[in-house]
Amino acid sequence: MGEAIRLTDTVRDLLESGRRERLNQILEDAHAADIAAALRELPLPDQVTLFRLLGRESAGAVLAELGDQAVHELAGALDEGEISSILDRMRPDDAAQVLEELPAEQAERRSPRRSRGSSSTAKRPPDVS
C-alpha cells in the first residue's frame, strides 16, 4: 500500500504544478491498481484529468481496478466516446466487469458494439416449412 500512497502524493503534486509530461512518465511505469488507488483519493476534476492522460489500454486496466462508485462517477464525467473507445480495447472480461458497475442506462449507452447488427434474429435458423 505504500507505493499507492507515494503515487497519490506524487500525482497530486504534479497535477498542482502542471507537470503533465513528468506525470505521463510516472503513469507509464505505475501498476493499474496503484493508479486506481490514487484516482480514488483525488477530486473528480483531477480524476478526469489523470484518467485522460492514460493510454487506452492502461485506462481500461485502471477502470477494471476501480470500485462501482468510482467507475460510476468517472464515467459520468467522461464523454460517451471516450468510455466506448476504452471498453472496445479492454479484455472482454474486464469490459464486462466495468459495464456491470455502471448504472443500466449508462452501460447500455456505452456498451461497445452492443447494437451493431448482433440481434438475436440474426442467429435464428432459416424457416424450413
Topology:
Blueprint: H1 2-17, H2 20-29, H3 32-41, H4 44-53, H5 56-65, H6 68-77, H7 80-89, H8 92-101, H9 104-110
CATH class: Mainly Alpha
Question: How many DSSP H or I helices?
Answer: 9
Please report which band the strand proportion falls in: under 5%, 5-15%, 15-25%, 25-35%, 35-45% or over 45%: under 5%
- Determine the fraction of residues in helical runs and give it as a percent range: over 70%
Total individual domains: 1
- The quaternary organization reads as single chain
* CATH homologous superfamily assignment: MgtE N-terminal domain-like
At CATH level 3, the topology is: MgtE N-terminal fold
Low-confidence stretches: 112-125
CATH 2nd-level architecture = Alpha Horseshoe
Structural classification: mainly alpha
The biggest beta sheet is recorded as: none
**Average pLDDT level:** 79
Instruction: Please write the string of helix (H) and strand (E) elements.
Output: HHHHHHHHH
Q: Any idea what the radius of gyration is?
A: 18 Å
Please report the distance between the alpha carbons of the first and last residues: 65 Å
Shape: globular
Number of strands: 0
